[in-house]
Amino acid sequence: MNQWPDEHVVAVFRSAAIAMATGQAGTELFAGELGRFDEIDRAQVDRAVSALLDTLLRDAWDRGWQPNDLAEFGRRELEADALPLLVPAIGSQHRAYAVEGLAPQWVDQLAGLGLRAPFESLDLTAWAKQHRQVRYLVIDAVVTLAAFLLTLPVLPRLLPLPGTYRPSPGATSSRRASGSAASTPGASSGVSPVGSAGERKPGHDKALGRIRGLLAKAEATEFPDEADALSAKAQELMAKFSLDQALVDALGNGQGDLADDSAARRIWMESPYTAAKSQLVHVVAMANRCHAVMTERPPFVTVVGSELDLELTEILSTSLLVQANRALLATGQRARRHDESRTQAFRRAFFVAYAQRIGERLQAAADATQAAVEAEQGDLLLPVLAKREQQVTALLTTLFPKTTTRRTRISSGAGWAAGRDAANRATLDTAPALRPA
């Protein structure tokens, strides 16, 4: 048996990770020491690994990270040998919490990673055997993963810390026993540390399921005319759904009061051209009465708004990003000057122009829908929207007290023209007319 206590082995792992993360000398020395520990007592090393990763993951939650954030950032940053350890480590760490102490969105994110209660512990020896990994390479992967977790930046906290969530009195939880987050890069969700943390109303999931189903068909179609036929009801239907729900919420609380369900979620951007692509999320957010703040590293956009508006923004943004990428590929294939369509300038201009034109279409549809609802409801709508904007702005200021405006330069007229043309053909439709149950 090893003569050293478990805490010493944990400390050596941590020192090795720090040396790797900072580029300091001594990484090989620590690796040799860990190898000797492993030869003497593998069970002790397994315990040390579990304890170390549990601690580092708790620190990550404290710094504002969520499970989906770690999965997205890890997919971009972690080496191939260490990435498969991340999700099992996240699951193992959640053995410390009762499921009732996790926000519904947090549970959804875990489910999207394939993690559901009861969570399994991370047994390094069993994991290495299952993945047919050589032991010393697995030890190295643990050090790499620990180095990654040690260097995570601080993010605004969008959800209650695991173990601290409490549903608001009288609210109906949206927690699903076997739900899953969206599988696309924009699946991260979150809410304010205060408030009702995302309880959903009856019929909400069914309506969004219909939206996602139709968008999946729109993304799959190979015929632009078919996609165009769907786009007429695009933002109109989303806006109608949202405005109807806002009125129901206000009237349901009596005397026009509106419960504060302002929230935030992160939509991760795929490289390259993340700044240009983020503008698409920005215009979708604006059309849906949300605010968007881009972070370059890590590459995501934080969208702040009411819960329903956030969901609609995320669903449509994700679909339009898929459509934009597909349209860019098709444009390159059709272009006579293939060389230009492959340049960075062309593609950056394409995404910026696409976003601008999409924004024009969305805003026009949203404005028309709001005018129609105002004509139908009289003076009921404007106070509701003003109150909701006040709530959302307050949360935005809390999360991001300082923001700056960024402009993206373009230098390809052909890319700009191609992007606007593709945006004119983009499918914005989401579903048949929807009203809250």
Automatic annotation (TrEMBL):
Record's compositionally biased regions (Low complexity): 166-197
* Residue spans crossing the bilayer: 137-159
**What residues does the DUF2786 domain cover?**
206-245
Q: Which UniProt keywords apply?
A: Membrane, Transmembrane, Transmembrane helix
In terms of superkingdom, the source organism counts as Bacteria
Q: Where is the DUF7168 domain?
A: 277-387
Read off the Pfam families from this record. DUF2786, DUF7168
Region Disordered: start-end pairs? 166-205
Identify this protein by name.
DUF2786 domain-containing protein
